Amino acid sequence: MDMMQKYPRISDMVAPAERKLPKFVHAYLAAGTGIGQAMSRNEQALSEVELMPRFLRGRVAPDTSLELFGQHYAAPFGIAPVGLQSLIWPNGEALLAKAASAHQIPYTLSTVAGADLETIGPIAGDMAWYQLYAPSDKAVMRDLLKRAKAAGFKTLVVTVDVPGPSRREEMRLAGAPIGSRNPMALTPRVFWQCMTHPSWSLAALANGGKFSFKNLVRYNKEGDGDDITTFIGRQLNGSLTWDYLAEIRAEWDGPLVVKGILHLEDARQALKAGADALVISNHGGRQLDAAPPSITILPQIRQALGNDIKLFFDSGVRSGLDIARALASGADFVLLGRAFMFGLACLGAQGGQHVGDILKDELQNTMVQLGVTTLEELTATRT
What we know:
Order of helices and strands: HHHHEEEHHEHEHEHHHHHEHEHEHEHH
Strand content: 5-15%
Distance between the termini: 40 Å
Largest sheet: 8 strands, parallel
Strand order of the largest sheet: 3-10-9-8-7-6-5-4
Radius of gyration: 20 Å
């Protein structure tokens, strides 16, 4: 099957992904929080960014590669940290890490992943980034960073925009037992959803049929009396402060990226704490439904901080054209989460590779249409 003929855009994989996934899994992937306004505004605001083409420049041969933190990447985008990837599609972390390595783009492993650092680091190789939700137990933090370094992860991404869990109303409506002692419990409703989505269920069974937070289970000591989800809730409870961020900086000797910045003063404080780059993000619209679209904040922070600061971007990116829009708006690099997850859910093992193919092709084509050959030239195209 010619993937580019059947699924030429990421949007073409959204409906097939929904058909394949049990409703509670699809709700986790596709929904925001509240009534989904922040998520919708992200996409709408990006769609309103206009780029001005220039013509009569002869043959345009775009170069999408870049150097970042001393590492060569083939394109200015990477796979954002997404928790529970193995829930979206079994063995999802390993599949996407392999695709990222093949595409020579970063893969960011989440703290709450279904695969551990020691497994994913060697698969992603030089493309391995690790995302930290700072645990309340600083001994756990230090051990996670030690393990990440030993497994070959070179860049640390600290997520700061989750002070507490959002309500995830769509997941509740879909039957996920949010708020129970075991939100992964196989209730009759969840069981029926699994039975009526056999491709997902058979793939899950082929990979053991059980999900585990493999980076964290070792820290839930026997005898503490907590199940793993209670333990995670107790550890990832919004304990991150500026002082704690400075401690993380002191522990990590590689590049440090702070993810989830919207306010200019938070940006300045993060840089003061030692961040090497900032991700302008509203967590994909999953935390606060009143949050402003990330793309409207990005140019403001770029203008205030100047061009010497590394600014990354995520939230609402669904195409190579969106990547160009973000770069034209002041981003040095772009992270995508849901786009890769839709590919994973739709195509399984081939999904990550195909999404990367689409994004590279769309970005290169956008640059040709604009008449630019370098990523730096994109800045001048925003109207």
